[in-house]
Amino acid sequence: MTRLLVAACLAAVLAVAWPCRCHAVVQRAAAPPRSLSTSSRWIVDERGRRVKLACVNWPSHLEPVLAEGLGHRPLGAIAAGVAAMGFNCVRLTWPTFLATDASYASLTVAESLRRLNLTDALAGVGANNPGVADLSLVDAFGAVVGALGASGVMVILDNHVSRSGWCCRANDGNGFFGDADFDPEVWIDGLAKMAAMFAGVGNVVGMSLRNELRGPRQNADDWYR
């Protein structure tokens, strides 16, 4: 367990250390670099000024693996609306398999929505966000990050589940190390790949390593020895 936690933390650190050559759509749209660090118990910027994160959740881990709402409003308008409401940060969720499973990464948004028979959603994406339907799922995710950056909104990449879908149930296979869809090595690989993908993207300021460890395999009692 110690090795897994160390490796996972290293993956998060790499998000600000590795140069990204993966997705130009992220690089073009991202806000200017923002340097955050810690001073005692505070998060501070490059001038030593305290930064308070006021975050809102934006799910992108459900079956379509597409940020919710893009079938109803333009991406830029949603991002600008987040900032207008006073939030400076989005917790943007993603499933591990987006980064580790080629069958996910190779799908376009249109293909993902069609396989789920979400024809109305696909029509809405085409009307409100022309061009997004033809992006791969991972590039569409990057476009969301970029739009948030263009509105001055920071992003925390939240590894919510492994297999895309609703969260959470105790027996959904995503809850704890060793569950059907929670292979620790695949999880670490996914964290490292997302860290590399978004390195150098200035508005990506952190990574949530996993959402809500749970289920019958959890070992909560071991933490209190």
Automatic annotation (TrEMBL):
GO BP: polysaccharide catabolic process
InterPro entries, sorted: GH, Glyco_hydro_5
Keyword Transmembrane applies: no
Pfam families noted in UniProt: Cellulase
UniProt xrefs under SUPFAM superfamilies: (Trans)glycosidases
Residue ranges constituting the Glycoside hydrolase family domain according to the UniProt record: 76-221
GO molecular function: hydrolase activity, hydrolyzing O-glycosyl compounds
Lineage top rank: taxon: Eukaryota
Signal peptide positions (record): 1-24
Swiss-Prot/TrEMBL keywords: Glycosidase, Hydrolase, Signal
The family this protein is said to belong to: Belongs to the glycosyl hydrolase 5 (cellulase A) family.
Protein name: Glycoside hydrolase family 5 domain-containing protein
Species, as recorded: Panicum miliaceum
Native organism taxonomy: Eukaryota, Viridiplantae, Streptophyta, Embryophyta, Tracheophyta
